[in-house]
């Protein structure tokens, strides 16, 4: 079901991209956590009130009296969404469609490896990349919090929050993966899968700017990731996580099934 050779090859081909994004997330994650100070809550709230639309667009409009609320506002509202999305777009374009476009898929399928095995292995590689990002930011934030603010972070809730974050990555990566399975030319996955994910992020930002635009939140799956609801253990927050996982699994399944049966011009 899995080609270990192909999985290892993809890992070697993409580890530098992974390291770059881990470095970026390390920088932003550490900086934001270091800024936490309950005494500055009123100052940040004053800044948010002076620029309400900008703060709201990036999901930073809430009041943060605890460390986990602060991290949810300033990291999980946009930073831990946008940068991993760029990683997903870059990596998803480097699998399947690129092999077909360059003609190397013919050599790959000429081996005893089944086409479904190739599709499943590529999907597993992308999912593993997303999981590695979530696992890294989880450990990073817990470690930095323990060093700078020992005892301040609710680790249990924080881990659940990151389980929800993985749901977002799974959903976005499945959209890009499914797109790359549907088209042979790499420009189409960029044009459809990647663009759709970017539009979802922009719609989320617009929906947070004003009450009039709030109805647009129903047009993006990002609304299903309710960080505040997850931290407060609300059932709607957990339900959103489940739906994100279901979307991801279904789209990955569609992509694998379609690629396994499609007529490739190679």
TrEMBL record:
The keyword Disulfide bond does not apply. This is Membrane protein, putative. The lineage of its organism: Bacteria, Bacillati, Bacillota, Clostridia, Lachnospirales. Keywords: Membrane, Transmembrane, Transmembrane helix. It comes from the Bacteria. The chain crosses the membrane at residues 15-36, 74-96, 123-149, 155-178, 190-209, 238-259.
